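dumping this here so i dont lose it
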């Protein structure tokens, strides 16, 4: 018996585990102090009333023999939810067929699992800095990884290099961790590059609900993307499902390689390894896309965007270089006085009692930067920014 030795190539301590250890040590030593957590991007507002009501109704259905449901008839999702998600895309101008939507238990799982359908010999292009799951998933499979440099000079929005071959391309917009958002022309360049390379774009749209000002919310708003892209959506940040777990993957019927349908491969993979999201959760998700649900979740999103605006104003007042915040729940900024991300993390924790996320945890190009999340309490966000501005 042999283990998968590629796991030995992973960083020994996951970023957020390291942060948790530092924070736990501080709170143990100072249990009476008021620590403001702006690190991990977890939501804090409760589920919308329309979602809760749908869950209650679905729970009651599960309590009666006539309406009880066991295994989902299709691991790809109940038709009512796939139709609702397709309708949601239609609301911002992207046409989908329900059969092109595959319901899963979150974007993180689907982004990690999708590479099961691609060969390990593929070259993977990943931006740096980056959400760690993209890197770790491919290290586990032993794939060759190359990086697209994101930095202050390009606004942390790297563009394709025609001289760099790639088979699998990761794009996250709005980006985690930097909050930067590609415009239509920039995404068009990536689609053209992928088509030229005969590559696939794995487009993480987990934060699309924060986008405004006419910027793209879906890769499928770009002509040609249907032939080279897979999109991942999440209800975690859209509707507060971080603890409930539900997301979706969109694969257009036009996406084929060597005459083989990618959607069919994904459907086969999920049928073998996944039994589907629970009925109660899917009914809750369906409620998100009703007019009442949309109104309620937009109120929650507006709350988080207000927090982000408070952070943006503080960055400007302090004269710090930053990106994100206006179309994203994250603000990514350069640490003051030439400090590294981890040095500034320790400073914020011990001197300001604020928890952020050091840029080094997202890759070498994150060095000297810090990520703050807008998903916290509004009053505490204002207090945290007041602490920062005191110097």
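and the seq i came up w/
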């Amino acid at each position: 018996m042999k283990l998968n030795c590629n796991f030995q190539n992973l960083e020994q301590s996951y970023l957020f585990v390291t942060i948790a250890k530092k924070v736990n040590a501080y709170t143990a030593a100072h249990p009476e102090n008021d620590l403001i957590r702006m690190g991990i991007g977890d939501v804090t507002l409760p589920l919308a009333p329309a979602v809760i009501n749908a869950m209650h109704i679905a729970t009651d259905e599960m309590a009666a023999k006539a309406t009880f449901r066991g295994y989902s008839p299709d691991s790809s999702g109940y038709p009512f939810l796939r139709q609702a998600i397709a309708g949601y895309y239609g609301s911002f101008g992207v046409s989908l067929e329900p059969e092109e939507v595959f319901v899963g238990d979150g974007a993180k799982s689907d982004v990690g699992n999708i590479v099961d359908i691609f060969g390990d010999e593929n070259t993977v292009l990943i931006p740096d800095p980056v959400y760690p799951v993209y890197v770790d998933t491919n290290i586990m499979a032993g794939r060759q990884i190359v990086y697209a440099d994101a930095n202050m000079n390009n606004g942390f929005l790297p563009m394709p290099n025609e001289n760099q071959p790639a088979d699998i391309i990761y794009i996250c917009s709005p980006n985690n961790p930097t909050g930067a958002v590609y415009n239509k022309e920039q995404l068009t360049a990536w689609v053209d590059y992928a088509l030229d390379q005969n590559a696939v774009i794995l487009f993480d749209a987990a934060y699309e609900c924060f986008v405004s000002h006419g910027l793209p919310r879906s890769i499928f708003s770009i002509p040609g993307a249907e032939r080279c892209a897979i999109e991942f959506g999440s209800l975690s940040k859209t509707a507060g499902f971080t603890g409930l777990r539900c997301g979706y993957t969109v694969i257009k019927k036009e996406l084929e390689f060597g005459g083989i349908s990618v959607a069919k491969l994904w459907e086969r993979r999920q049928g073998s390894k996944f039994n589907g999201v629970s009925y109660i959760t899917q009914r809750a998700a369906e409620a998100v896309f009703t007019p009442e649900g949309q109104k309620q979740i937009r109120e929650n999103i507006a709350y988080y965007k207000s927090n982000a605006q408070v952070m943006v104003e503080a960055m400007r007042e302090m004269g710090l270089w930053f990106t994100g915040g206006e179309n994203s729940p994250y603000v990514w900024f350069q640490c003051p006085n030439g400090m590294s991300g981890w040095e500034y993390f320790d400073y914020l924790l011990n001197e300001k009692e604020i928890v952020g996320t050091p840029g080094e945890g997202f890759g070498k190009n994150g060095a000297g930067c810090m990520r703050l999340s807008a998903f916290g309490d509004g009053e505490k966000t204002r207090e945290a920014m007041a602490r920062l501005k005191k110097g």
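The radius of gyration is 21 Å.
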